[in-house]
Specification:
Its main location: cytoplasm. It is found in: Cytoplasm. Belongs to the gluconeogenesis factor family. Required for morphogenesis under gluconeogenic growth conditions. It is built from 13 helices and 14 strands. Helix 1 (19-29) crosses helix 13 and helix 5 crosses helix 6 (111-121). Strands 3-2-1-7-8-10-12 form a seven-stranded parallel β-sheet, sandwiched between helices. A three-stranded antiparallel β-sheet has the order 5-4-6. It is of the alpha/beta class and 330 residues long. It is globular, with a radius of gyration of 19 Å. It has one domain: Rossmann fold (3-Layer(aba) Sandwich), CATH 3.40.50. It has helices at 19-29, 45-54, 60-69, 74-80, 96-108, 111-121, 151-154, 181-187, 198-206, 209-217, 240-251, 287-292, 314-329; strands at residues 10-15, 33-38, 127-130, 136-142, 147-149, 161-168, 190-193, 221-225, 229-231, 258-262, 279-282, 296-300, 303-306, 309-312.
Length: 330
């Protein structure tokens, strides 16, 4: 059931991956004025194949956000999210939703326009914008001086990442933000980063120069939802403070106001390694390090255990976000 207020707070959520839809779904239920800014750097799986085949922005993260903010019946959602089996020849591993977004992108000659049209069709409560209207390629420079190109490749290197940057996939030039992205950030009461992969879901958006600058200049409360688990090939052995330090170093400024940190321990041997093979260890806490980065720290039990996986409890996280946004603005 939605909670209605006289004034909906304008909350911009930036990221990608599987964590973003969880938070968006919770915000939708609280009747916020939501804008999701979604990464378009994915080059693996169904998204990667479609991106190569018809020169479109990768649809996977956009598809999951559409579903999270839609009020369509569960049966429609199940159809939209259905993934073909591996043995289904050229349809193998594609989701119906990805194929629909691909078709609409080709019809409208724009993934941006396709998402706006699908948002109306699916009764989306909020705004969904790809971070850029062109596909972008993620690059990483490692601490040993080597480089890697491609979101799906970087983590497989299992090397310490010094920094990441993005280029326009088509011509290698700097990436421009999509329409309405910058104005949404400027008008926001709160900007939420994550949860999601630090180097491959969150930073690709912030590495779009104008987008990152807009977040740094914003007067809104900037909240980072720290991951619960470290990730193979990205944040191995990272503390929560190290996550924040990477974000600050990339943008050259201490721009995060508040960090949400889960303190509930995960039961030993709970995680199913066959399904969640990218998870390593629970993120270590360094509260002094977070304060040294200029952040207010909110630590609590934000943990949800489900189906052998570790997730953020969306109700608890969203309750905290609303306490912050109303305390800061009203």
């Amino acid at each position: 059931m939605k909670t209605y207020r006289i004034r909906k707070p304008k909350i911009v959520v930036i990221g990608g991956g599987t964590g973003l839809p969880v938070i968006l779904h919770g915000l939708r239920d609280q009747s916020a004025d939501i804008t999701a800014i979604v990464t378009v750097a994915d080059d693996g799986g169904s998204s990667g194949l479609l991106r190569q085949s018809i020169n479109m922005s990768p649809p996977g993260d956009l598809r999951n956000v559409l579903v999270a903010l839609s009020d369509m019946p569960q049966m429609y959602e199940d159809i939209f999210q259905y993934r073909f089996k591996e043995e289904d020849n050229f349809l193998a591993n594609h989701t119906i939703g990805n194929l629909i977004i691909a078709a609409m992108s080709e019809m409208k000659n724009s993934t941006y326009e396709a998402i706006q049209l699908l948002s109306k069709f699916m009764h989306v409560d909020g705004h969904i914008y790809p971070a850029s209207e062109q596909s972008m390629t993620l690059h990483a420079k490692f601490s040993d001086g080597s480089n890697a190109t491609g979101e799906s490749v970087i983590a497989k290197e299992r090397k310490k990442i010094d920094y990441v940057y993005v280029t326009n996939t088509a011509d290698g030039k700097p990436v421009k933000p999509a329409r309405k992205v910058i104005s949404s950030i400027r008008e926001a009461d709160m900007i939420v980063l994550g949860p999601g992969s630090l180097f491959t879901s969150i930073l690709p958006n912030l590495m779009i120069k104008e987008l990152g600058e807009a977040v740094c200049k914003s007067e809104a409360e900037v909240v980072y939802i720290c991951n619960i688990m470290t990730q193979k090939g990205e944040t191995e052995h990272f503390s929560d403070a190290e996550h924040v330090k990477v974000l600050h170093n990339h943008l050259g400024k201490q721009f995060i106001d508040t960090v949400l940190v889960n303190t509930e321990p995960i039961p030993e041997d709970y995680i199913d390694p066959d399904v969640y093979d990218e998870y390593l260890l629970q993120v270590k806490h360094d509260f002094k390090g977070l304060r040294d980065e200029g952040c207010r720290v909110i630590s609590a039990d934000f943990l949800e255990l489900k189906d052998g996986g570790v997730f953020h409890d969306r109700a608890k996280v969203v309750d905290e976000l609303f306490r912050l946004v109303f305390g800061a603005k009203y």
